[in-house]
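> call design_seq(struct)
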């Protein structure tokens, strides 16, 4: 579980999540928002108008990223990330297909780390 590959994947995913989480929480994003299709833009606007959804996702992404970088509660952090990464893929699959590459990277890195830590999840399936 502590191979150099796993460490690189964990750190890469942690940096991505911290960056995207902070981007959602700061008043002016430091990562430019991509041009979205009209349906995707409407969806994101409705989420932003709730006042809490994007902030909640940002806090979760930031928290999970910090846990990954600090190597604390990894199995828990990866489980928290699973539905988020699934929703990111579904968003891009149905509303913004050209932007799916980043979603696939996050989901793949999450899948690799879950696989590498699978022994910690076995008790959930007994």
């Amino acid at each position: 579980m502590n191979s150099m590959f796993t460490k690189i994947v964990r750190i890469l995913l942690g940096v991505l999540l911290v960056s995207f989480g902070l981007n959602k929480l700061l008043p002016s994003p430091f990562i430019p928002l991509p041009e979205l299709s009209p349906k995707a833009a409407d969806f994101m606007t409705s989420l932003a108008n709730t006042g809490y959804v994007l902030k909640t996702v940002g806090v979760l992404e930031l928290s999970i990223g910090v846990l990954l970088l600090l190597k604390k509660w990894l199995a828990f952090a990866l489980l928290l990330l699973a539905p988020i990464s699934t929703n990111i893929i579904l968003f891009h699959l149905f509303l913004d297909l050209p932007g799916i590459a980043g979603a696939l990277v996050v989901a793949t890195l999450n899948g690799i780390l879950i696989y590498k830590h699978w022994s910690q999840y076995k008790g959930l399936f007994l």
